[in-house]
Amino acid sequence: MVAGVPAAGLWALLCLILSIAQIGIGPIIIPIIIYLFYTADTFTAVAFLISHFIRQYS
């Protein structure tokens, strides 16, 4: 598990497929961030949230 996310390889594969289809990783990463806020420590969830917005708007 990466950062406490179960089946991280599956999520990475889905992100790859959505990125190839020009949809982006938002539909995958937002629920993962919400899951991390409930299960992991806050620092990990905030780090994922910040990195998502930095990649999206840069």
Main attributes?
58 residues; mainly alpha
SS element count, helices: 3
Order of helices and strands: HHH
Determine the strand fraction and express it as a percent band. under 5%
Structural class: mainly alpha
Number of strands: 0
Cα(first) to Cα(last) distance is: 28 Å
The radius of gyration is 11 Å
Mean pLDDT: 82
Q: Helicity level, as a percent range?
A: over 70%
Shape: flat
Main sheet: strands, sense, barrel: none
Unreliable stretches: none
Topology:
Layout lengths: L7 H13 L5 H14 L2 H15 L2
Describe the structure.
The chain is mainly alpha-helical. The protein has a domain at 26-58. It contains three helices and no strands. Helix 2 runs antiparallel to helix 3. The mean pLDDT is 82.
